[in-house]
Amino acid sequence: MKIAVIGSGKLGQRHLDKWQQIAGVEVVGVIARNRERLEMVAKKYDVKPFTSLEELFAQTDVDAVDVCTPTYTHAELVKQAAQAKKHVICEKPLALTSVEANEMIQVCEENQVQLLVGHTLRFFPEYANAKEQVEGGKIGKPGVVRLTRGVPFPQGRSWYADDEKSGGLFLDLGSHEFDWLQWTFGDVKRVMAKSVKRGHEEAEKMEYGFVTLRMEDGTIAYVELSWAEPEFQASYELAGDKGMITYDHQATVTISLQLHSSADEDRQVPKSLMHKDPYRRQLEHFIQCMEGKAEPIVTATDALKAIQIAEAAVKSIQTGQPVSLSEGGR
Ligand SMILES: NC(=O)c1ccc[n+]([C@@H]2O[C@H](COP(=O)([O-])OP(=O)(O)OC[C@H]3O[C@@H](n4cnc5c(N)ncnc54)[C@H](OP(=O)(O)O)[C@@H]3O)[C@@H](O)[C@H]2O)c1
Asked: For strand 206-215 and strand 188-198, is the pairing parallel, antiparallel, or unpaired?
């Protein structure tokens, strides 16, 4: 399978690194615009540099492109690749808006190419295992779940801080949690959100958001999102009528399972789980999908739904009202 990566930034380089570890994959190119960094990255990963998809398509017989560029560029690049009959892997969030995402899905369907989306949380053992435990009934009937994700305010890479380019905190950061929630508990029924945004000077900017979601199965989810942390943090508490699973990225023992039943002692989820690299697992899965050996764990429609939840959160902030998704109330 011949792959080209678009983007030579953080995610582009991470993917280049992982692609090279996967048997049967040949990386035929990397695309970016800034010549200097492009040359440096191409040399580091020993791949050919290109400055456009046209150039790549003219000089290689690439099978799939892997879009690791800022969110506002996804729609154009994905459609262009699909029209050239190439399979597409696209970083999360799939697009800036649900309108764009629908168009991308349609163009990929028309051209009969796959559209695989990097909702990487589904490949993180901490999150994939928690879904399995919930579905296996370990915590009983889920009641209330709380998830948090926070990073420092995105400085330096200005497109993240520009809502017109990244979709802002709720789409950029929140789409991780929104996707995981719908994967684990089913569709979202209603969304209510609040946010605090502060700072005019670059150095003091921060944003914090809080989203309450009622899932179709009755579970209530609280999602805290922050662009105001000194360092990366993520956590969850999943409580049901038989027990609770907790995870804290910053804790020494990151995952634990506490059960009400006395027959079962409190347990930690096996440490061995934590050694699998989620990015590599994700890319290996995409190869299997493109070779027709697996059905996508994340569909493009799932990715669209994550965007719709983020849009509902933003609408709730603007109106001060809950927003219903199940009744098409976006
Ligand atoms: N799955 C995850 O866990 C995860 C984590 C972080 C980010 N992401 C997602 O990954 C994507 C990329 O984020 P990042 O942090 O890697 O961004 P980044 O570090 O700013 O890198 C973006 C890259 O895209 C290139 N680029 C921009 N516009 C382009 C265009 N029109 N054509 C070709 N190349 C273009 C830039 O280089 P030039 O300016 O030289 O073109 C740069 O190399 C985003 O959608 C983000 O949401 C996913």
From this structure: antiparallel
Residue 311, domain member (yes or no): yes
Domain range for 44 is: 2-118+282-296
32 Cβ inside 6 Å of ligand 1: yes
CA 101 to chain centre: 14
pLDDT in tens, 131-167: 999 999 999 999 999 999 999 998 766 799 899 999 9
Q: Are residues 110 and 148 in the same domain?
A: no
Which numbered atom of ligand 1 lies nearest the CA of 120? 1
State in Å: Cα 322 to ligand 1 middle: 33
3-state secondary structure 49-89: EECCHHHHHHHCCCCEEEECCCHHHHHHHHHHHHHCCCEEE
Is ligand 1 within 6 A of the CB of residue 10? yes
In a domain, 330, yes or no: no
- Helix axes 10-19 and 278-290, enclosed angle (nearest 10): 70
Number of domains in the chain: 2
pLDDT in tens, 195-226: 998 876 666 678 999 999 999 999 999 999 99
